[in-house]
Amino acid sequence: MKKLLLVVSLWAAASALTLVGAQDAKPPNLAPYFPTPPAVVKAMIELGELKPGELLYDLGSGDGRIVIMAAQAFGARAVGFEIDQKLVYQSRERIEKRKLGALASIEERDLMAADFSKPDLITVYLLPSSNDKIQPLLEDQVKPGARVVSHDFTFRGWEIAKEIVVEDPTDEEIPTHKLFLYRR
User: Averaging pLDDT over each range in 8-12, 100-104, 169-173, which range is the top one?
Assistant: First the structure.
């Protein structure tokens, strides 16, 4: 009887710890923060043919540089999705400093729970495995006519509408960047 009571007690304790851990668990980070060079940011937005007033989503928005350029230089509405609280805070500060709050925003959000049915353009700089994870969501939700631009990594099975190479001589580590445009 003591052994049964001990097993039940241990099971209850483990279950309680699992529930507490599940409540505090953060969604997985789908890519490390690696800033996109300004020339590549501009090329991504231009390749995606973003027009004033259109809506851009940047997945894994880091410090907000794509969102900021889309709003500031292209007159588009732009939303960034970022999981890292520090980067969310930094991005929001940069947006506020530039007085772009009417056009630009950053959401602290798990990409796997996001709604992708509204944007005209989605920009992505995630790992290949992360592209694989979000691909079914994009396939199910992205509206007809929307564009997706991916930096360096492709989406499996999607037809590439256009591919360009952007040279960045200021980047000694990675001076060449590939961009892929997809039309849905």
Answer: 100-104
Tokens of 114: 């996001």
* Topology at the third CATH level for domain 38-183: Rossmann fold (3.40.50)
Q: Is the pLDDT of residue 85 over 90?
A: yes
**DSSP notation for 6-28:** HHHHHHHHHHHHHHHHHHHPPPP
pLDDT at 171: 80
pLDDT for the residue 73: 98
The whole-angstrom separation of Cα 69 and Cα 6 is 60
Whose CA is closest to 166, among 37, 16, 2?
37
Backbone angles phi, psi at 5, to 5 degrees: -65, -40
Among 166, 161, 157, 136, smallest CA distance to 148 is for 161
Measured distance CA(81)–CA(29) in Å, rounded: 12
